Amino acid sequence: MVPTEAGEIWSSEYWTKKGDIPLWMYRKADRRTQGRASPARPVFVFRPRLSVTSRVFDLNVPGKGEYSVMNEFARYGFDCWTMDHENYGKSGAHVGQFRYRQRR
Fold it and tell me: pTM for the full model?
């Protein structure tokens, strides 16, 4: 696989539910494939471990540059997805349950 040029990546946010709990999902891919399904394009799902938000895979550090592993895989042609699990990041939690929140 050959990477595309930097800056040709698109992203979109999605929501789904686990029962009554809203779950946040995030997707990145090469701009040339935006909105089109392709059986030839492999899917890569980034799954966070421990108690972190899924945005750790898409970091941009002001003054330091891009550290996004999602962008890198998207440039190589992968359809990249990640999701905040219940109680983490932007996803919801049961009422009264301890909540790990993403810092903004």
Answer: 0.70
